[in-house]
Amino acid sequence: MPISHNDGSGFGSGANGDLQSLIRNVSTRSVFFLQQYLLRPGLIGSVAPSSQALAREMLDWLELGSAQAVLEVGPGTGAFTKALLPRLSKDCRVVLIELNADFAATLRRNFPGVKIYNESVAHARSICDREGIAAVDCIVSGLPWASFPQPLQKSCLAAIAGVLRPGGQFVTFAYRGVDMLPRARRFRDNLDRCFREVTTSRTVHWNLPPAAVYRCRL
């Protein structure tokens, strides 16, 4: 997969591939996402899967090559998972937690052999215990935080922090424009309370909608 070298505009050398990826996402999988959004608008944060460009922005900061255990929460149909797995060592443990049963079924078809739990992120500690994982090095999140009321945001973040090792990394994203809404702003404040370090990436324009990544270290 080619790596885009960005100049700060959000349009890098991988722009042609990103555009093709964006078109494929819209044309082949958005119908499925739209169906799920209409069925569960409070739990599905988008009508289209994330792009390759956003996946790169999410994953490039993470120290995945040396990770012993990685958790992905809210993977949807696996846009980040597809980019994540090749970056991991053969000895790394990876676990996916997806609440939506239809998405979980799609993940099982697309990623045979990967541990996938059709449960809430609130069960992260229990799931890690079942897998014999004391703590994870990195957590990748596709959860629709701006759709969550503050108590749910706090409980999910507490569950995430409860399985992340000290110094561990957590990444998630926010759609531009949506990130100014009250729930999204409260989520950003909750990140600052939960993690000792939080930074925001450039805007990824090759995504529908454009988004930015929150990079957090415990």
What CATH architecture label applies? 3-Layer(aba) Sandwich
- Kindly report the oligomeric state of this protein: single chain
Order of helices and strands: HHEHEHEHEHEHEE
State the domain count. 1
The CATH superfamily is known as Vaccinia Virus protein VP39
Secondary structure layout:
Layout: H1 15-39, H2 52-59, E1 69-73, H3 79-84, E2 93-97, H4 101-110, E3 115-117, H5 124-130, E4 136-141, H6 150-161, E5 164-175, H7 182-194, E6 197-204, E7 211-217
Parallel strand pairs: 1-2, 1-4, 2-3, 4-5
Antiparallel strand pairs: 5-7, 6-7
Helix pairs in contact: 6-7
Describe the structure.
With 218 residues, this protein is an alpha/beta fold. It has one domain: 3-Layer(aba) Sandwich (Rossmann fold). It has helices at residues 15-39, 52-59, 79-84, 101-110, 124-130, 150-161, 182-194, and strands at 69-73, 93-97, 115-117, 136-141, 164-175, 197-204, 211-217. It has a seven-stranded mixed β-sheet with strand order 3-2-1-4-5-7-6, sandwiched between helices. Helix 6 (150-161) runs parallel beside helix 7. The longest helix is centred in the N-terminal third of the chain and has 25 residues, at 15-39.
Structural features:
seven-stranded mixed sheet, 7 helices, disordered N terminus, 218 residues, alpha/beta, 7 strands, Rossmann fold
The gist of it:
37% of the residues lie in helices and 21% in strands.
